[in-house]
User: Fold this.
Amino acid sequence: MRVNKEIRQLSREMLRASFTDGQLDRGKIASLIQSLIAKKPRHMIDILQNYKRLLRLEIDKRRARVESAMPLSEQTAADIVARLKRKYGEDLIAEFQVNRTLLGGIRVRVGSDVWDGTVRNRLERLQQQL
Assistant:
Protein backbone atom coordinates (compact mmCIF):
# COMPACT_ATOMS: atom_id res chain seq x y z
CA MET A 1 0.00 0.00 0.00
CA ARG A 2 1.39 3.34 -1.03
CA VAL A 3 0.19 6.06 1.32
CA ASN A 4 -0.02 9.46 -0.30
CA LYS A 5 -0.35 12.84 1.40
CA GLU A 6 -4.16 12.92 1.20
CA ILE A 7 -4.51 9.48 2.83
CA ARG A 8 -2.08 10.39 5.63
CA GLN A 9 -3.83 13.69 6.26
CA LEU A 10 -7.34 12.19 6.42
CA SER A 11 -6.29 9.32 8.68
CA ARG A 12 -4.46 11.71 11.05
CA GLU A 13 -7.55 13.94 11.23
CA MET A 14 -9.61 10.87 12.07
CA LEU A 15 -7.13 9.94 14.79
CA ARG A 16 -7.28 13.44 16.33
CA ALA A 17 -11.07 13.26 16.33
CA SER A 18 -10.98 9.86 18.09
CA PHE A 19 -10.12 11.31 21.52
CA THR A 20 -12.34 12.46 24.38
CA ASP A 21 -10.52 14.08 27.31
CA GLY A 22 -7.19 12.64 26.16
CA GLN A 23 -8.55 9.07 25.94
CA LEU A 24 -9.43 7.06 22.86
CA ASP A 25 -13.22 6.89 22.60
CA ARG A 26 -14.62 3.70 21.06
CA GLY A 27 -17.90 5.42 20.22
CA LYS A 28 -16.16 8.17 18.28
CA ILE A 29 -13.98 5.65 16.48
CA ALA A 30 -17.04 3.66 15.41
CA SER A 31 -18.92 6.76 14.25
CA LEU A 32 -15.88 8.03 12.31
CA ILE A 33 -15.56 4.71 10.50
CA GLN A 34 -19.30 4.58 9.75
CA SER A 35 -19.31 8.12 8.41
CA LEU A 36 -16.27 7.38 6.22
CA ILE A 37 -17.97 4.26 4.85
CA ALA A 38 -21.15 6.26 4.16
CA LYS A 39 -19.21 8.96 2.25
CA LYS A 40 -17.14 6.39 0.30
CA PRO A 41 -14.22 8.68 -0.55
CA ARG A 42 -11.56 7.77 -3.02
CA HIS A 43 -8.95 5.43 -1.46
CA MET A 44 -11.35 4.56 1.38
CA ILE A 45 -9.66 1.21 2.07
CA ASP A 46 -6.21 2.81 2.22
CA ILE A 47 -7.49 5.51 4.59
CA LEU A 48 -9.02 2.86 6.87
CA GLN A 49 -5.83 0.78 6.84
CA ASN A 50 -3.67 3.78 7.71
CA TYR A 51 -6.15 4.83 10.43
CA LYS A 52 -6.01 1.31 11.86
CA ARG A 53 -2.20 1.48 11.91
CA LEU A 54 -2.28 4.85 13.71
CA LEU A 55 -4.79 3.52 16.26
CA ARG A 56 -2.62 0.47 16.92
CA LEU A 57 0.44 2.69 17.48
CA GLU A 58 -1.56 4.92 19.84
CA ILE A 59 -2.79 1.92 21.84
CA ASP A 60 0.75 0.53 22.04
CA LYS A 61 1.93 3.83 23.56
CA ARG A 62 -0.42 3.22 26.46
CA ARG A 63 0.62 -0.38 27.17
CA ALA A 64 3.79 -1.39 28.99
CA ARG A 65 5.11 -4.93 28.89
CA VAL A 66 7.55 -5.78 31.66
CA GLU A 67 9.45 -9.06 31.35
CA SER A 68 11.55 -10.51 34.14
CA ALA A 69 13.37 -13.76 34.77
CA MET A 70 11.55 -14.28 38.08
CA PRO A 71 8.19 -13.01 39.37
CA LEU A 72 8.56 -9.48 40.75
CA SER A 73 7.49 -8.56 44.26
CA GLU A 74 4.39 -6.40 44.57
CA GLN A 75 6.46 -3.45 45.79
CA THR A 76 8.90 -3.67 42.87
CA ALA A 77 6.06 -3.97 40.36
CA ALA A 78 4.27 -0.97 41.93
CA ASP A 79 7.50 1.11 41.76
CA ILE A 80 7.99 0.24 38.09
CA VAL A 81 4.38 1.09 37.25
CA ALA A 82 4.59 4.41 39.16
CA ARG A 83 7.74 5.44 37.28
CA LEU A 84 6.27 4.46 33.93
CA LYS A 85 3.05 6.37 34.64
CA ARG A 86 5.07 9.48 35.50
CA LYS A 87 6.79 9.25 32.13
CA TYR A 88 3.92 8.07 29.90
CA GLY A 89 0.76 9.24 31.68
CA GLU A 90 -1.75 7.88 34.14
CA ASP A 91 -3.68 5.85 31.54
CA LEU A 92 -0.77 3.43 31.08
CA ILE A 93 -1.61 -0.27 31.45
CA ALA A 94 1.21 -2.56 32.62
CA GLU A 95 1.52 -6.27 31.86
CA PHE A 96 4.03 -8.39 33.75
CA GLN A 97 5.46 -11.58 32.26
CA VAL A 98 8.02 -14.10 33.44
CA ASN A 99 10.56 -15.03 30.78
CA ARG A 100 13.04 -17.62 32.09
CA THR A 101 15.39 -17.10 29.12
CA LEU A 102 16.40 -13.65 30.41
CA LEU A 103 18.56 -15.16 33.21
CA GLY A 104 18.08 -12.03 35.37
CA GLY A 105 17.07 -8.37 35.27
CA ILE A 106 14.07 -6.87 33.47
CA ARG A 107 13.07 -5.68 30.00
CA VAL A 108 10.42 -2.96 29.62
CA ARG A 109 8.65 -2.14 26.35
CA VAL A 110 6.28 0.80 25.96
CA GLY A 111 5.25 1.38 22.36
CA SER A 112 8.53 1.48 20.42
CA ASP A 113 10.64 2.33 23.50
CA VAL A 114 12.59 -0.59 24.97
CA TRP A 115 14.75 -0.64 28.09
CA ASP A 116 16.72 -3.85 28.34
CA GLY A 117 18.46 -4.35 31.66
CA THR A 118 18.65 -8.12 31.42
CA VAL A 119 21.67 -10.28 32.10
CA ARG A 120 21.16 -11.94 28.73
CA ASN A 121 21.42 -8.57 26.92
CA ARG A 122 24.57 -7.65 28.85
CA LEU A 123 26.18 -11.00 27.99
CA GLU A 124 25.30 -10.57 24.29
CA ARG A 125 26.82 -7.06 24.25
CA LEU A 126 29.95 -8.37 25.97
CA GLN A 127 30.21 -11.17 23.42
CA GLN A 128 29.96 -8.66 20.56
CA GLN A 129 32.72 -6.53 22.07
CA LEU A 130 35.05 -9.51 22.29
User: Anything to note?
Assistant: The mean pLDDT is 90. The radius of gyration is 20 Å. The longest strand covers residues 63-68. Helices lie at 5-16, 26-39, 44-61, 74-88, 119-129.
